Amino acid sequence: MSKRESFIGSPDWILLVLYMVLIVYGWLSIYSATATSETAKVFELSERYGKQLLWIGMAFILGFSILLIDAKFFSAFAYAIYGIMLVVLMAVLVVGTTVAGSKSWFQFGSFALQPGEFAKFATALALAKYLSLNNVDMRSMKTKLMAMAIIGAPALLILMQNDTGSALVYVAFILVLFREGLSGITIVSGIIATILFIVTVIFGEIYVAAVLVALTVLVFLIFKKVRKNWSGLLVGMGLSLIFVFSVHYTFNNVLEEHQRVRIQVMLGLKNDPLGAGYNVNQAKIAIGSGGLTGKGYFKGMLTRNHFVPEQSTDFIFCTIGEERGFIGSGILVLLFLALMVRIIQLAERQRSPFSRIYGYGAASILFFHFAINIAMTIGLAPVVGIPLPFFSYGGSSLWAFTILLFIFIKQDANRLNVL
Amino acid sequence: MYKKNYLGRKYVVIGIFVAIAFVFLGRLFYLQVASNQYQLSARNMALRSIVEYPPRGRIFDRSHHLLVYNDAVYDLMVIPRQVKNIDTTKFCQLLGITKEFFEDQMQKAENYSYYKPSVFLKQLSKKEKGPIEEIMYEFPGFYFQTRTLRHYPMPIAANVLGNVGEVSDNDLRNDHYYSPGDYIGKSGIEKYYEKELRGKKGSRIVEVNVHNIVKGSFQGGKFDTLAVQGEDVTLGLDAKLQEFGQKLMVNKTGSIVALDPKTGEILAMVSSPSYDPNLLVGRSRSENYNRLLNDSLKPLMNRAVLGTYPPGSTFKPVDALIALDEGVITANTMLTCQGKASKPIACDENHVSPLDMTTALAVSCNSYFWKTFKRIMDDPKFDNMHDAYVDWYNKVKTFGFGETFNTDIPYERPGNIPSRRYFNKLYRGSWNALTVRSLSIGQGEILVTPIQMANEAAILANRGYYIDPHFIESIGNNDTVPTKFTVKHYVAVENPLYYKEVIGGMEQVFDSSIGTARFYKMDSITQAGKTGTAQNPHGKDHSLFIEFAPVDNPKIAIAVIIENAGYGTTWAAPIASLMVEEYLTGKITRPKLEERMLKADLNHDPRP
After folding, report:
1. Does residue B276 share a domain with residue B396?
2. Among partner residues A184, A326, A375, which is closest to B32 by beta-carbon distance?
3. Chain B residues contacting A, CB < 8 Å?
4. Same domain, residue pair B222 and B274
5. Using the beta-carbon criterion (under 8 Å), do A286 and B42 form an inter-chain contact?
6. For position A5, what pLDDT does the model report?
7. What pLDDT is attached to residue A137?
8. Among A354, B134, B250, B435, which is least packed by CB within 10 angstroms?
9. DSSP string over B467-506
10. What's the pLDDT tens digit per position in A137-178?
11. Interface pTM (ipTM) of the complex?
């Protein structure tokens, strides 16, 4: 083993290949969504596909550089990196530029950077660092609170930038906490709460409350075993009722109008194809018209003719859906699934808890972006403006996801050196 | 410190990943493969079918003079679904329309279809479309479609050429080639040769972007069809002769039909009063149409085929031919103007008596032809007079009377040769030669159209046959005339001798010092003709004349009818003679006569 190789370690080729495939697939989609013709010059820095090519080149350099850095650097400086990111997030609140309503950009001449994108891997690092400490036990309240604080701080700052979508991404870390011992009840409660929220918005709190009470009585009458634990049942019912009655208030007073409408559109309570539902409706038509094999590269008559808004960024999936059809979009879904599963597999083979926890963090963030982005374009989730990793146009997100992934690849490459 | 190993939880996490991925795959399968509603929506949204209208075929006369060509105009089309957020005030201003008109048109378009294009504003000129075309992108849902309008360089032959107008609901039902707003030949040649003239519409499918701007053809034009240009049609019409005829007929009501007897081609077909065909083109079409429709002189009616008149004495050559053929007279049979039942058909001119057939034709002796008619009816070879009548009736019909020609002129009238059954009904079976004696001098129930009279002249010119009168000379590059226009129809009288004798009488009409058209004899051209002065229930007698020339090698056969103008000698004969001279020599050697005819106003200042 040469000195340089040993220094880089042995990076996982499967992850590297998946990364390359996703990047190339992503750029081809941006090219088709933004180029005027198939023969357009590729290196055209005034066009999005040209810029994206530049961002990709720089991402490769970034990724390769990370492989060159000592693996221990990231665990050693995890808190420092996290701290710096918090400061940067605060700074952007003061000197940032507002784009599309969110004050989350640093403007350097014609070039803009979104620090929020980079806060994700920093948070993953800090969380991994904290949870890998020997005296930490997920079951203790202190650990829970500390973990919540680490996750919550950047999320709160991003929320203050008015970038709700990016802040929501931090919810993904619950999967990390779950793997490290957080009770499954937390996740189940979360799912129940989501269901209650949805049915309450659809049917109104009175009906839902009535059904809840009836359900509790039924459970009490039918399952004799449960009767012994009647106090628990009562508490569960009580909490659910409080939640249901607070939904009305939250929905109408905490959420903003556009968020409310997006939820209503998603739930089919509102049909507004020319207004709030426009994006989703157009996106659905574009994807749906792709058929089995798609219309062909550069033949997406909706995505190429601007019928889908934000088609090179948040709605890039439409280009794939329309031009590559079910086969092309299915392959994309499976590629992401492979990437995420592979990260989990590798994470589980780590000797160091830090690497494992970081791996889960990386997989959870990729998963959240993948799930929410595609769900919104196919009408399964309300419109939340977050990018599809490696696909959506934009340097900040591409670099942030590259760093996120390559830190893990580096940790994994170096796993045998961990004692 | 003891730390529980949560190794099993990785399966939960992976399970969640896999579950979501498969939810997506399921949803994508539903959207993309299972349901095809989205394909339809996408096509509706991003594709537009543009109809390519071919230029309509042009129409030429026999010397390749252009009679009808096309002018480009622009229809403003609208697709209601795509119209949103437009500045209506600005839009109306640029087009010079009112807001109410805008609302009306939009409503009409929506009533037709929300998704399909309708005509919003018809036939804008290039100049009218200019200002709005530059900022079309401000008005999504609107676009221009190029159409062609007919244009007539010479304002002649309106009734022959016919006109082109928007398709009716009926047309739409009968022929699915048409869509609302399409043009179709409504009358005349435009109607009869519609299929040849219209060509074939093409269609182009283009992709548009969200701003309704055309981005290019859909799939490289794979589904496009080219428009096929309509075929040019060349008519046997002689534009110069037609124009001259129309000038001669100014301020006269009636018709002129001139044929080339050898081919049956119609050289001129004048119906007077006429109108400038350019009136029935463009946006003032319906206004002009209604004006013409309500004109008491009925300019829209093509009198040459729709006007039915008693032929009067122009019928006498047929009488003579049949009588000779029946053998009831010879050319030398002398008859007098006196005798039984001659009174009502008394000769209105003093002439020699008794007289032979040739002279009888020259002076148009009524009694002579009544007597020959009676001889036919009394002919002992028939069982009874009614049988004799049927024989006569059948023979007359072979001359093209009482029926329409199988020709390329839409809407002909057959005229009338009364049948035995008709008389049986009218007189309850009790009638005889005397009862129907008016027929012998082309009066009574007998009615003919000008084209039938011209055809009679052609039969005499051809000595016994005719070809259905028709306009078409060639279609497109195809020089062969439809076979039905080459068929010779032989009439009941075939013996050349009889023709020679009758034509001799018709020559005497010009050449004899007592001939009824002696004033119009020309030294350079031999003419054979017959005057007619037809009594009719509408007022003064119709002035009629049939003629062919030159006698030995006829090139033109002509009929002239001037309604309520008096003697055939006075008006129809000189006009026919002038037409013949114009056609055969290209110049008029009788300027005084020409001027008198051109200036005569028989509509307003009828002289006795």
Report:
1. yes
2. A326
3. 1, 3-4, 6-7, 9-10, 12-14, 16-18, 20-21, 23-25, 27-29, 31-33, 35-39, 41-43, 45-47, 84, 207-211, 215, 218-219
4. no
5. yes
6. 52
7. 84
8. B134
9. E--B-EEEETTB-PPPGGGT-EEE-S---HHHHHHHHHHH
10. 888 889 999 999 999 999 999 999 888 889 999 999 999 999
11. 0.93
